[in-house]
Specification:
- This protein has 134 residues and is mainly α.
- 36% of the residues lie in helices and 7% in strands.
- The chain contains 6 helices and 4 strands, in the order H-E-E-E-H-H-E-H-H-H.
- A two-stranded parallel ribbon has the order 1-4. It has a two-stranded antiparallel ribbon with strand order 2-3.
- A hairpin with a 4-residue loop joins strand 2 and strand 3.
- It is globular, with a radius of gyration of 16 Å.
Length: 134
């Protein structure tokens, strides 16, 4: 499910954890194309600089520290290698909490284009399949 500091999806993560369901976070870096560019977020950049890590590494590590697995997308070989170097360090609690409390929560993907066929099929709107609870 979509999960990153800009869209924590806290209620869904908590519900899954209570049921013993492991969560894999996609879009852990946000998306430049869809208006949630966490790689260039000032809070993420500040913490990355403090830890001598890239913003991408901080975002991937944040997801891992929350107990999720992650699927970071990149076509850049250097960034792919960089994203793998997230296991031998931790984000200190204070910085982790700052990332976990970014107030501007916004989804990257709203699902309308993936799950809804407005002309055919049983679901003609997001409201038909989502109660906005999580």
């Amino acid at each position: 499910m979509e999960m990153h500091p800009g869209w924590r999806n806290d209620k869904m993560l908590e519900a899954c954890q209570k049921k013993g369901i492991h969560v894999t976070a996609y879009s852990p870096l946000g998306s430049q194309a869809n208006g949630r560019d966490l790689i260039h977020d000032s809070t993420v950049e500040k913490i990355a600089k403090k830890l001598n890590k890239s913003p991408g590494q901080v975002l991937v590590r944040w997801a891992i520290q929350r107990g999720t697995s992650v699927i970071p997308k990149s076509t850049n070989p250097d960034r792919i290698k960089e994203n793998m170097h997230v296991f031998n360090w931790v984000i200190p609690d204070q910085d982790f909490n700052v990332l976990s409390n970014i107030s501007d929560q916004e989804r990257v993907l709203h699902g309308e284009d993936l799950f809804v066929n407005k002309n055919d099929g049983p679901y003609r709107s997001v409201a038909d399949i989502w109660d906005h609870e999580y």
